[in-house]
Every structure is written in structure tokens, then in C-alpha cells.
UniProtKB/TrEMBL annotation:
One of its GO terms (molecular function) is unfolded protein binding. The keyword Nucleus does not apply. The keyword Signal does not apply. Residues 1-36 form a coiled coil. Gene3D superfamilies: 6.10.140.250. InterPro entries: Cdc37, Cdc37_C. SMART domains: CDC37_C (SM01069). Keywords: Coiled coil. It holds the Pfam family CDC37_C. This is Cdc37 C-terminal domain-containing protein. GO terms for cellular component: cytoplasm. Residues 104-123 are annotated as: Disordered.
Length: 123
């Protein structure tokens, strides 16, 4: 009987030790999560400060604008080739205008200008 009592005490002691370790681990996890929030919070603040310093005259971020450009235009800026940029923009404009005409979105009306397709429907 004494032996069983001793084993029970040992188990209770181990259980208490394990619970203490568990609570310590939980506390460390909470602290780590808080530290992580601080680190990422500071990182976000830093990144925003860097972005603010990059802003152009009209408050546009050149990096964001560059990333939004079609790959063809990005290559022109990478090469710093003004002639290539002009040719590419011309080619892209012709392509998009042709699509607008072909779809009926833009209806050319000769040398004087264009006529709004909505006006044709009202007549």
C-alpha cells in the first residue's frame, strides 16, 4: 500500500512539473507572438517609410507603376532606350485602337474626327 502511495505521489509530482512546463511554454509562445507582431509592425512601418521616400511628384510609387506596366514597356525602361519606348508605345496604341475599332467601341468618321457610336443609335 505504501508503495502505491509513493507511486501516486511521484505521478502527482511529475504531473505538476509537466503542467508547470506547459504553462511556461504557453507563456513563451505568447511572448514570441507579441515579439513577432512588433517585428512585423516595425517592418511594415519601415517599408512604408521607404515607399514614401520613393514617391514621385504626383504621389505615385515608381516601383508600383513599373510593376503594373506590360513586360514590353518594362524592357524599354530597363534598357533606358527612348526610341524603343516610343516604338513600343506606338505599336501598343495601334494594337489597342484597332481592337476598339474592330469591337465597335470606337467608330472613326474620316479626317474631321470621330463620331460617338451612341449618337448613331439616337438618330
Amino acid at each position: 500500500m505504501e508503495e502505491i502511495k509513493k507511486e501516486k505521489e511521484q505521478l502527482d509530482t511529475k504531473k505538476a512539473e509537466n503542467l508547470k512546463k506547459l504553462k511556461e511554454a504557453e507563456q513563451k509562445l505568447i511572448e514570441a507572438k507579441e515579439a513577432n507582431k512588433l517585428v512585423y509592425g516595425f517592418k511594415g512601418i519601415y517599408e512604408e517609410e521607404v515607399r514614401q521616400k520613393r514617391l514621385g511628384p504626383d504621389s505615385l510609387d515608381p516601383a508600383e507603376v513599373y510593376e503594373s506596366l506590360p513586360e514590353e514597356l518594362q524592357k524599354c525602361f530597363d534598357a533606358r532606350d527612348v526610341k524603343l519606348l516610343q516604338e513600343t508605345i506606338c505599336k501598343m496604341a495601334k494594337y489597342h485602337i484597332k481592337r476598339c475599332v474592330d469591337s465597335g467601341l470606337w467608330v472613326p468618321q474620316g479626317p474631321e474626327g470621330t463620331q460617338d457610336p451612341k449618337e448613331d443609335k439616337n438618330e
